[in-house]
Amino acid sequence: MKSRAGSAWVLAAAILGSTMAILDGTVVNVALPVIQAKLSATLADAQWVVESYLLFLSSLILLGGSLGDRIGRRRVFAAGAAPSVGFLVLARAIQGIGAALLVPGSLSLITANFPAGRRGPAIGVWSGSTALAGALGPLAGGVLVDRLSWRAVFYLNVPLAVVVVAITLLRVPESRDRTSGSIDVPGALLAIASLGGMVAGLIEASRSGFLHPAAAVPLAAGTVAGAAFVAVEARSRRPMIPAVLFRSRDFVAANLVTLFLYGALGAAMFFLPFNLIQARGYTPTRAGAALLPFVLLISFLSRWTGRIGERVGPRIPLTAGPLVAAIGFALFLRAGPGSSYAGAYLPPIVLLGLGMAIAVAPLTTTVMSSEDDRYAGVVSGVNNAVARVAGLLAIAAFGIVAAAGAGGSHAVAGSAGSDASLHAVMAGCAGLAALSAATAAVLFPAGVRGSRARSR
Q1: Nearest to 127 by CA among 403, 323, 317
Q2: Rounded to whole angstroms, how far apart are CA atoms 411 and 186?
Q3: Helix, strand, coil distribution of the chain in percent, nearest 5
Q4: Where are the alpha helices (DSSP H) in 241-345?
Q5: Are 99 and 58 a contacting pair, CB within 8 Å?
Q6: Which of 53, 194, 298, 456 is least buried, going by the fewest C-beta atoms within 10 A?
Q7: How far apart are CA 396 and CA 196, in angstroms?
Q8: Residues 355, 132, 29: CA angle, nearest 5 degrees
Q9: In this predicted model, what pLDDT tens digit does every residue of 141-199 receive, in sequence order?
Q10: pLDDT over 90, % of the chain
Q11: Does residue 60 contact residue 192 with C-beta atoms inside 8 Å?
Q12: C-beta of residue 263 within 8 angstroms of C-beta of residue 54
């Protein structure tokens, strides 16, 4: 059994590594309206700043998990902490590659170094701590934009990377799955091609329509690449997603819940800062601070909800949490001209934070406990990939919803932040969250799992 002191270093490395990935994903959102204005960009251009990061993170996160299982979780995790800056979209793509190594590595380090009895609370601490980092992301991004420049947000992780690498190499023991075989490079390339084509097509469809070649061709290419990915994975001797994982009912159910819930969350967190800054006139700092109640609730409640989930099973928290979040999304429909923060924004933000706090730790624990420890990296990778793919596709698809809500004025500066766009997006998000709750209620049996075998 690992010592508690050694486990503490593992947990610290996992939290800080995940923090890097979270900051990369959150500091930019409040900067996007400013980037759009400074560079005279359309919403589609702003979407690509986020989507270039999510595309490579979503596509390669499975490869990152498999690499960790095969060549060593500590080694791959440390490699992912190397920071990258440069041209905006290219730099974001490179950051996404690094995050694809960090994100699955953080959870697989916890799974490999914490026994089953201590794993749930450890994941709760990890969830809460990374949520707290998420709280600092929008606020830090806003302060940097207001006081320095939007370019400064891309340098935030450089000193943190040094600390992560040092702790990981000096204090974290190596672990790997010695039965793991070759790395599925063809699968990773097809995943990039499939998701990239779909995202490009959806973003272009919001301004040109689905029948325009600029949208239809990448959508068709993405679909073909997706079919090829499924075929390659089915025939591969060492697929990125082993078919055995889908024999676990809990694994399948938890990933469906993740898909719907994180799709809603990704779209909401992308479009909400536009509304706060463009429609309500908030500064980036104030817009970042407006989101603090959401992430603070997740941070302070996650450890407690992780323990509750272990006692009552996944069905109750994974049904209740998304339902509360759905109500929060729906309450954003009250926002309009003259709306105050306390009256129109704070209540839904609080409900959204409460709903996610109820769901996040039990969802993560359920996924990581659904399979044997030797699959820790790939299980973590699959669930994180599902969450990122959900956000990736939702941001692209909800651009169409936002454009429809704004009367089709997708390319007009400021249209993304209009109240009509916000209402259309949040109505769709409420529907996705409600679908997530329904999925949990139907697919998770009542009660606590006695063992992994019972979930099959």
Answers
A1: 317
A2: 36
A3: 80, 0, 20
A4: 249-274, 284-290, 292-312, 315-331
A5: no
A6: 456
A7: 11
A8: 85
A9: 788 788 777 777 766 666 777 766 666 666 665 555 555 555 667 777 888 888 888 88
A10: 11
A11: yes
A12: no
Tokens linked to 342: 């306390």
The length of the chain is 456
Alpha-carbon 15 to chain mean position: 15
**Phi, psi angle pair for 27, to nearest 5°:** -65, -25
- Tokens of residue 307, six digits: 């323990």
What tokens were used for 322? 């998304």
- Is the Cβ–Cβ distance between 372 and 452 less than 8 Å? yes
How many CB atoms neighbour CB 451 within 10 A?
8
d(CA 219, CA 425): 22
* CA distance linking residue 202 with residue 246, whole number of Å: 29
At 73 the three-state DSSP class reads helix
Alpha-carbon gap, residue 295 to 335, rounded angstroms: 21
The residue to which tokens 């999925």 are assigned: 439
Q: CA 159 to CA 156: how far, in whole Å?
A: 7
184 near 238, Cβ under 8 Å?
Answer: yes
**Per residue in 298-335, is it b (16+ CB within 10 Å) or e — as a string?**
bbebbbebbbbbbeebbbbbbbbbbbbbbbbbbbbbeb
Contact status, residue 417 vs residue 274, Cβ threshold 8 Å:
yes
Instruction: Answer whether CATH 1.20.1250.20 is correct for domain 4-184+238-455.
Output: yes
Which residues contact residue 67 at a Cβ distance below 8 angstroms, ignoring those fewer than 6 apart?
76, 101, 183, 377
416's tokens = 């993304």
Report the Cα 248 to chain-centroid distance in Å: 23
Least Cα distance to 290 among 300, 301, 303, 280 occurs for 280
d(CA 440, CA 442) in angstroms, rounded, equals 5
Secondary structure (DSSP) of 81-102: T----SSHHHHHHHHHHHHHHH
Q: Which two tokens stand for residue 352?
A: 């959204």
Answer whether 0.85 is exceeded by the pTM: no
Output the CA–CA distances (angstroms, integers) from residue 257 to 125, 364, 386, in the order listed.
21, 11, 10
Confidence category of residue 435, pLDDT binned at 50, 70, 90:
very high
- Cα dihedral 432, 276, 139, 130, rounded to 10, equals 0
CB atoms within 10 A of CB 342: 8
Q: By three-state DSSP, how is residue 40 classified?
A: coil
Residue with tokens 């190397």: 82
Closest among 268, 309, 217, 304 to 395, alpha carbons compared = 268
Element (H, E) at 453: none
Binned at pLDDT 50, 70 and 90, residue 74 comes out as very low
